[in-house]
Amino acid sequence: MVLLVYFALPFVVFLGRTGSVPVVETLLQTTSRTAVRNSLLTAPVATAISTVFGVPLAYVLARKTFPGKRLVEALVVLPLVVPPVVGGAMLLSVVGRFTPIGAAAAQVGLPLTDSLVGIVLAQTFVAAPFVVITARAGFGSIDERLEQASRSLGCGPIATFRRVTLPLARRAIVAGVVLTFSRAIGEFGATMMVAYNPRTIPTRIWVDFIAGGIDAIVPLALALLAVTLVVVATVQRFAGVPTVVEQ
């Protein structure tokens, strides 16, 4: 109960400040609209990339044994352990403008820093582990005999994965997708290091906070909260995914 009050009190007090702040007018400003647009463009892309590559990796980790598996598991968890700012610095050491990869990308007109691509790279780095870890737990909870039965009935490995494994792990996978999106759209530390410009909602919030304090960030903070809640509610409504607590 004490922890619930601790969670709820900041929300209640923060939302109580909305009455003295011109929320609509602030969100209609060009800087705010641009930040919202950038976040809504990049976070879904980062989530899609994380899902496309993360779900197969989760299945391999759940079902296969191979040399170096513990190292792979550690690498998956590492972005969650490393502070986001440090993670951003690590990314810069690979894709920065003066690195071989970053310089080559810039030459072909696709800069990997201070661009929407850079934002996606930062978001994917910090958010992808959520879908991998959650999906792996979902795959691990499936009785392997169900997959073996499918194979014995003539289904190949891909067909078994698509018709048996994925539907059974669907709830865990979608829950991981929700967590990944929520983490991606709220990412600040790594994004600030890799792509401080163009602004996303979190980086715009930081700029506004420096300039005007807490009241100045209320509109965009509400927008960020609203987007996250709408996505979570929509996924739960149409995918039948329980809340994290229910899982």
TrEMBL record:
Entry keywords, A to Z: Cell membrane, Membrane, Molybdenum, Transmembrane, Transmembrane helix, Transport
Classification via InterPro entries: MetI-like (IPR000515), MetI-like_sf (IPR035906), NifC_ABC_porter (IPR006469)
Membrane topology: Multi-pass membrane protein
Bilayer-spanning residue ranges: 44-62, 74-95, 115-135, 172-196, 216-235
Locations listed in the record: Cell membrane
Domain called ABC transmembrane type-1: residue spans: 36-235
PROSITE patterns for the chain: ABC_TM1
Primary location class: membrane
Protein family membership: Belongs to the binding-protein-dependent transport system permease family.
Name under which the protein is recorded: ABC transporter
